[in-house]
Amino acid sequence: MRDKGMDSPGGRIAFALLAAAVLTSLTACGGSLNSIGSSPKGTTVTASFTGAQMPSAVAYQAGTTGQFQSLALNGYSVSFTLPVETSAYGFAYICPAFAAGSFTFSNESIIQATTTDTTSLSFACPSLSGNIRATFDVSAIPGATQTMFYEGYWADQMFGTSGAQFLYGVPTGKLDVALVAMGDDNAALGIQIQRGVNVTSSTSIAFPPMTAADELGSAPATITNVPSGATGDFDTTYQTSGGLSALLPVSYTTGVPQSTYPTVPSSQSQLGDFYLIQAGAEFPNNPFIASGDPLAMVSSTNASAVTVALPSPLSSPTAAPAAAVFPTFNVIADDFTVAGTVVNSSFTQFQIQRSPIVYNTYTYVTKTWLGTNTTFTVPDLSALTGFAPAPPSGATEFWALYSTAGTPLEFNPVQQSGVEFLSSPMSTQSVQTSGAFTVP
Length: 440
Fold this sequence. Notes:
Blueprint: H1 9-28, E1 41-50, E2 57-62, E3 69-71, E4 77-83, E5 88-94, E6 98-100, E7 103-114, E8 120-124, E9 130-137, E10 146-151, E11 154-159, E12 162-170, E13 173-182, E14 188-199, E15 203-206, E16 217-224, E17 231-239, E18 245-247, E19 260-263, E20 274-282, E21 293-300, E22 306-309, E23 328-330, E24 341-351, E25 357-366, H2 367-370, E26 375-377, E27 396-407, H3 414-417, E28 427-438
Parallel strand pairs: 1-8, 7-25, 9-15, 16-22
Antiparallel strand pairs: 1-4, 2-3, 2-5, 5-7, 6-7, 9-12, 10-11, 10-13, 13-14, 16-19, 17-18, 17-20, 20-21, 21-28, 23-26, 24-25, 24-27, 27-28
């Protein structure tokens, strides 16, 4: 029923004053004025998605305090325009839930950055409806006892040195795939790569028998600034221009410094491929440093010698977040020696009792978005259609906090969010802490 009070002159004046107050509030809070016909517009930000799966919901925030608003995808991308003189923004997306093993995961990502950081975002969602029958034979590789199959960012273990194996629930789409021969100590020994394989719900992949030409080589690697009492070690991932991320482990003995990283033979490499060498510090009987776990990553395009410098451990531990439905994190005090954007990110995970879904939220906040603030809070998107519900009281919420500096600017966790086309050169340093609490 219409309010008759609005028909009076006084009612119309009150309504006009109310509208003016709302408009002023929107401007002060960094809200979008794009829906008002003649209002000036500022910078446009575009988010694009690659791969076979699109997000189930997306939203944006204008300014640092504006409310997140739902958006509609236009094909593989979505754009939003900020109010004039507004540079800070937020962008959120949630991927369709997917099954992995005995769990179902729902991944939500929230990016809070400024137009000076980037106005072009790129993401991907996992699409795990593919099925593959793979045939292989790595018996000619000395020491090989098992194999790993990599498709894009996905990995499956295959037992034995030859035969056929069915792989279910793998990513779909046109991706590079790799077969890696492994030893008893889980060290990678050989590799074969097939490019641009179109994986569907029924795909067969035949790898030719491996030969000596497929064996891995090695290149020198050095870790510097290793904390006292720790040993530096590496994880090496081979990245292709087709989105492959193949982990190449080495045989590693705790306490013995690692001095090389594995390299792919020329028979399997192509222009545009590169290595990501991630270094960390290993403490005897304690995999985490009390004041933060230091990590660093560099890329190499031609299997050349690399030096990876770890950041210094924190001089004092970063306070854990207080238990809350949407926790507030203290920014890690960084002491990085690499140039590039600093991103503070958090990871939270919870599961509603008797629900098959595990809810993961990744929050990324750049230093420019933070300004002089030393804390950030995970945004509450639970009221927006399609986004994750709020963690219920009594649930266990696991968390991790990262501070990362370097180039290029990355907002997409490879292991969780689908195929990500990383680029080289890359040089990053990060410090991380983690824990858990009970939601009040």
